Amino acid sequence: MGVTFESVEYQCSVIRPDIPYTLYVGKDHLLLVPREVAKVHPKFPSTQGPLPRFKLQLSHYWTKTYKSASGRDPVFPTRGVGFGLEEDEVVVAAVLPGTGYVPHWQFSDLFNGDTGNLMDESSDADADFGMMQFDLSQTARP
Question: What predicted TM-score, i.e. pTM, was given to this entire model?
Answer without folding.
Answer: 0.91
